[in-house]
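User: Sequence in, structure out. Go.
Assistant: Echoing your sequence, followed by the structure tokens.
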Amino acid sequence: ALCESLGVLLPERVHGAAHRYRFALAARDGGPGPQFDAERDWFSKAGWQYQCGLERHANIHLAGDDPTCFLRAWLNQYAVDLMPGEYTFREHTTGGPPDKIYEESCFLERFRQMLVYETGGSLWINRATPREWLADGKQIAVTDAPTHFGPVTYRVTSHMARGRVEATINLPSRSVPIRAILRLRSPGSAPIRSVTVNGKPWTSFNARAETIALTGCKGMVEVVARY
């Protein structure tokens, strides 16, 4: 119960301590610990419990800026509770109502945070999308997503065969975020080599984290990342 309470509070209030609580939750599931085998358990131990809406593993991984574990925990949780054909979620794996609004709303919450995510004065764009979504020729598009700072619209288009990804972002104007951060999770973790913003060279990017800082930008922003 304590871990679950911390999970609810973590994204907004104790982001800096995310790694400690991620360890605590993993330990509750049986690993890391004496029985944990990294080769065997690397997939299942990203975090899963039988009541997917209440369990906050995925939220905590995202607050700790671990997109890989976020995606694994989120989709592992929901895969076992999905009702085939209806595309609704059960309350939990062992029973409960077959169409649980709370579990469905939590799924939408995590889906939204994968695409737009606020923490403190920062706005994250495209923070944790699957790498396959930026395979050559694919697009990620979000229109008028409500955020604390105002609505956000963006489109990311992959031209990986030509070694580039293009993004057009309409940043919110109601309340300007202190930091705006775009993440481009490329197939195969290809490192960003260079970036232009509105046609000009841009050095505020982190190739290892796959992030581009757009702090100071306003309105419509055009980003080109080259690989």
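User: And one key feature?
Assistant: The longest strand covers residues 152-159.
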